[in-house]
Amino acid sequence: MRLGIFGGTFNPIHIGHLLLAETAREELSLDRVLFVPTHQPPHKTAANLLPGAERFQLVQLAIKDHPNFVASDIELTRGGPSYSIETVKTLHAQLPMAKLFLLMGEDMLAVRWLSWKELKGLCAIVIAHRPNSPKCRREAGVKWLDMPQVDIASSDIRKRLKAGRSIRYLVPPAVARHLYSQRLYGAGALAAS
């Protein structure tokens, strides 16, 4: 089995996340892509971070129609800071015959990773270029993913919702409906359709 592991706050999940996962699935011949919402990001303070259960539900709504995408609450149930090395070790123990691929945006190369060398030994690191990413080191031993570029950020979606602006085409329709119906991130009662 070839398993992609895609972690993040997903605060909220958007089309850019899904495009990265689908591109990786296709280019790397992945059998599954596991979406792993973080409990607590260790490298930054996440503004307006929804509770983990709510973000997990948004991920499930976003991927419900894709047969190769699966949501995992592994980091949410573990609690504490969400370190990828712990998640990868757990998955490696559960699926010892699987080839693991850790998927991330280029901006994540700018942060300090716990046990980076060990992580690279347990899984393939796959980096997707992101528009406007800070200048990052060109890390040896990683695979660069060639994907279409879309400049979408969860922080922009949160700002748009708070300002009463449309998020159409930035998130899947089911995610938009949920954000509006639950008035998440300060969303008003705009129609999600």
Helix-strand pattern: EHEHEHHEHEEHH
Shape: globular
Q: Classify the secondary structure makeup into a structural class.
A: alpha/beta
Show unreliable segments.
Answer: none
How large is the count of helical segments?
Answer: 7
Q: For the residues shown, what is the average pLDDT?
A: 90
Q: Largest beta sheet: what is the strand line-up? A: 3-2-1-4-5-6
- How many β strands by DSSP? 6
Separation of the first and last Cα atoms: 38 Å
Cα-atom radius of gyration: 16 Å
Beta content: 15-25%
Q: How would you characterize the largest beta sheet? A: 6 strands, parallel
Helix coverage percent: 25-40%
Task: Summarize the structure in words.
- This protein has helices spanning 15-27, 52-63, 74-78, 84-94, 116-122, 154-162, 173-181; strands at 2-8, 32-37, 69-71, 99-105, 124-128, 143-145.
- It has 193 residues and is of the alpha/beta class.
- It has a 6-stranded parallel sheet, sandwiched between helices.
- The longest helix is centred in the first third of the chain and has 13 residues, at 15-27.
- The chain starts with a strand and ends in a 12-residue tail after the last helix.
Quick summary of this structure?
With 193 residues, this protein is α/β, with parallel strands linked by helices. The protein contains 7 helices and 6 strands.
